[in-house]
Amino acid sequence: MILFYIIGIIYALISARGVLCLNIGIKFGYIIFAVVILYYFLYALKKKILLYDTIVASILTNLLVQLTGGLKSIFFILYFPAVLVIGYRENQRNYWIITTILFLIELFSSIFKNQFSALPLIIFGIAIIINGIIVEKVLRREERFKRSLTRYEARDYFFGPANFEAKNLITSIKDIDRHPSIERPLLFYVKFLHNLFRAHTTAIFAYNGEKLVLVQGFSHSELFINDAVLDVERGLYRQIIAERKPVLIKEFVQNSDELGYYKGDVRISSVMIAPILILDHVEGILVIDRKGERFDEEAKALFDEATKGVGFLIAMLRLYEKERYESKYLSSIAELARKLQRGLELRAIVNDTVKSFRPVLNCDELSIASVDELNNQGTVLESTYLKENTKFSLDEGLVGLVVKHRNYIIKDDLSEGNLVVLKKGEKRARGSFLGVPVKGDNEVLGVIWLEDHRKKRFGEEDIEALHILSSQLTLAWQRAMLYERVKELSIRDGLTGLYNHRHFQELLEQEMKKNKELILILFDIDYFKKINDTYGHQAGDEVLKFIGRLISQTGIAGRYGGEEFAIILPGSNLKKGVELAVRLKDHINKSEVLFNQLKIKFTISIGIAHYPQDAKNRVDLIERADKALYSAKETGRNKIVIAKSINEKGSN
Asked: What are the transmembrane regions (predicted)?
């Protein structure tokens, strides 16, 4: 591997000298181009990216550009999608190193070959910087969502009922106020230990096999991270979990960052850490640190007993929860819960819930709806009798009242007072009703409700069962929401909200397989650099956002690169594609983007290609549309060029 890195450095030096800057001809260029595209396709699909993979991708891209003319090569634009892909797959440090080297290679190569041109290098440099910043922000957001997901799962497992008798009994316990029977005793115990040891910080972390997640903690430090998630690969914690023995560090001389739960430098003098064991299984760790006075062996002996006490307390609390919730419904709820823990798609989760739970309760109807309190509206997600996606106001029926009161509502006879279940105008309801909210941290996510033609059908057992189901559904629901948000972030451009280049390519491939014909529109903002130079990059961003809002509802829209956008029109013929392009161009010609009381006017150039008339595959279709766009820009800009017209001119 070291030999490969040395070869990579030698290649960079040779390329920077301009030795490879040749002109081998367009035919051979396309052959290399195909190899490069294939490699990037495999690179994008690879599960784990090594620096070796990224260096190969960079060398192939640079080799193609150099062999076909350097800065003058038509393949120079390949750098822009290349840095996008590398940015999303490689870590940030390696991204900046590799893209900077590519920039310097092109710079020095052009100087040595007397082909220096500032414009493409400036654009390339700006693209590297903008892409790096945007990708870094997106990846940070994704990491925060993943951390939240890890915390939800770890806390749910840590505070769930015992399965000491091999019964998979699962309960969602999330906060002290809602379930004091679990977290409050542990909270009091942690506080007791904190005062007993005169600690600076006392914390309990749950261990899920990969991460340590904070579940309870007290600290005198403002730098304490109250949602800390620690990597078990940290040497200290890995050793403690592996050896299952408490550790006393009398004189802690390392930086407090090593502990993982401080976000700055805290002068810790002494630390005690111990694994929390239940039936010889590591459930978490207890950490106590101190400033000033150090812990001694006497404190360690007391700490050992205190850690055993934590394990016993958690075990007793779990057994208590097990006994409390064990009823005729529990085995069925546990089975459903296992399904919910695996589910990531909300629709699939609620579908499983309705199918599995209705027979257990022996009721006529079971329904689940999501709610939007901001817009005072609900939507039926799954029901045994209502149509999916039925909308209703939260002001009209019992389901809305469940949301308003944030508590269960039970009615023994719906015919009394002409009560409405969902909305006015529905068939008159009879019999019994029971509804329970699905509550998140500070909001109502949805409602589960039961209906039966029999009066006084539901009782305390049904209320308890629905509450258990609601708790389970809360975690699954939140996980599904986080999953959707993470998924959406990974396929969307951070600035415009449109699909990013990678996902747009995937969608184009899918649509070409599904449709007999489609239109691909590529368009570019004319003189976009001039907008940035004249009004500033923030103004340029506003123009890009304006385009994003404008085309977001027109077919399948994506940001293809810097100021280049793309639209797929599935099932459309050339006439429809041209009509949309004309409307788009005319609308932009009449529009102005306001920025700091300035009115920015601009135009676009458009290229259109039709599948299968202009091309039979994705790569060729993009190439045809790109050539049409290039022709539009070369022949005066602010115009539309159809790929077919270029082909006909070429044949003539």
From this structure: 28-45, 95-112, 118-139
How many structural domains comprise the chain?
Answer: 4
Mean pLDDT, the chain, as a whole number?
83
* Bigger pLDDT: 552 vs 603: 603
Instruction: Check: CB of residue 567 under 8 Å from CB of residue 580.
Output: yes
603 contact partners, CB below 8 Å, separation of at least 6 = 525, 526, 585, 588, 589, 637, 638
| Cβ atoms within 10 Å of 146's Cβ, excluding its own | 14
- 460 and 520 fall within a common domain: no
More confident of the two residues 296 and 46: 296
Return the SS3 of 327.
Answer: coil
Beta partners for 282?
Answer: 277
In CATH, what number is assigned to the domain containing residue 220?
A: 3.30.450.40
Angle, vertex CA 211, rays to CA 209 and CA 212, nearest 5: 105
Clarify whether residues 89 and 199 are in a common domain.
no
Q: Last residue of a domain, which of 481, 510, 527?
A: 481
401 and 422 both lie in a single domain: yes
Whether 162 is covered by a domain: the verdict is no
Domain ranges, residue 230 = 180-325
Q: What is the dihedral of CA 215, 219, 221, 222, to 10 degrees?
A: 50
Looking at the structure, tell me whether residues 390 and 529 fall in a common domain: no
Binned at pLDDT 50, 70 and 90, residue 167 comes out as: very low
Pair 218, 191: CB distance under 8 Å: yes
120: nearest Cα among 611, 641, 562: 562
For residue 267, the number of C-alpha atoms closer than 13 Å in the C-beta half-sphere is: 3
The closest of 416, 443, 410 to 429, measured between CA atoms, is 416
For tokens 């957001």, what's the residue? 141
Taking the whole predicted model, whether its pTM rises above 0.70 is answered as no
> What backbone phi and psi angles, to 5 degrees, belong to 432?
-110, 155
Assigned domain for 157 exists: no
Residues 6+ apart with CB under 8 A from 250: 270, 294, 295, 296
316 lies in the same domain as 430: no
pLDDT digits (tens, 9 = 90+) for 429-457: 678 899 999 988 778 899 999 998 888 88
Answer yes or no: do 442 and 550 share one domain: no
Nearest to 595 by CA among 638, 546, 529: 546
- Residues 377-393: pLDDT tens digits? 999 998 888 888 899 99
Q: How far is CA 622 from the centre of its chain?
A: 28
- In-domain check, residue 130: yes
Specify the pairing of strand 640-642 against strand 604-611: parallel
Whole-angstrom Cα distance, residue 627 to residue 571?
22
Task: Compute the radius of gyration of the chain from its Cα atoms.
Answer: 31
294 and 243 both lie in a single domain: yes
